[in-house]
Amino acid sequence: MRVVDDVPTVLVTGASGYLGGATVRALQAAGHAVRTLQRRPSGVPGATDVLGTVTDVRDVAEALRGVDAVVHLAAKVSLAGDPREFHRVNVEGTRLVLAAARAVGVRRLVHVSSPSVAHAGAALAGAAAEPADPVRARGEYARTKAAAERYALAADGDGLHVVAVRPHLVWGAGDPQLVARIVDRAARGRLPLLDHGTALIDSTYVDNAADALVAALHRAPVVHGRAYVVTNGEPRTVAELLGGMCAASGVPVPRLSVPAGLARAAGAAVEAVWRVRPGQDEPPMTRFLAEQLSTAHWFDQRRTRAELRWRPRVSLDEGLARLAAAAGRAPEVPGRALDGPGREPRERPAPPAPSRPAGTAPHARPHGRVGPGRATPLRPGPHRA
Asked: What are the two backbone dihedrals, phi and then psi, of residue 9, each rounded to the nearest 5 degrees?
């Protein structure tokens, strides 16, 4: 990937997260010098870490000194929590980074957002990057990320080119967050499917997401002021995707199914309890999570690929093979043929048969056994601060 000569130094906020670290490495591979801003060291060799937060004016000013461009990933990502903290980090932190970046003459900024900013609960089948809507978005994370994206795109212009990128469901080998939680719950028999896991969903292998952020940075002078959803473009059923991750990691594939309506009701009850007595971990279920696991979320990638001049280089099957290799297992995932290194990811067929609701598929044949248990608290966002 060719480095852009007039933005040699890039600041990445939230670089200690899974996608943040991958983005730093992708920028370095493209020839950029990288500075990072987060509360703990990024752990990426060659990066210059500034320890601090995006809500502190002095920390942000120090991190931006001598920087030409910014990739803003830092965010509060959780299924529950104090609404004021979500707003402080996701909204006010973004506004502070934008204002400080403009003040020091930063020319490009990639704001990392989430498809949840435009999700109001209904299925998204072949959807485009619809406008962020903080009023209709579900949950504090999505609402505050929607507001932050609006501020970011409103700041575009007058020498600062801003692009919003929404990676969807980022995962990969070594993922300490989404994959680790799935594997942990599956191993303990606490990973049920909602409505048999028939909803079609997109996901994004971490290397592809990082490449897309670098591509957006390089293309900012042309595509600024726009938002893009980024995925592998290979929608699969929830059952197939979770099953593939579990099989690759050597834990039982989920087969227990719970009605989505029951999960939503349980999520509402859990939220009420969590507001009064929050637990140490994520809540086992929320209404937002139930919707995410039982409604279609797959996106039209033609505009993203054409305008960013980007394509995913790691297919989902190759990603599952890498996951299996990292777990010390054979790279084959039962029932799936691997594409192999360097080949284009296969496009999945578009909509399912019209006899079923949009974005669903026939009941997948279950693999393995999982005992009864609670729902898994999967995190909703594409990245971690």
From this structure: -115, 125
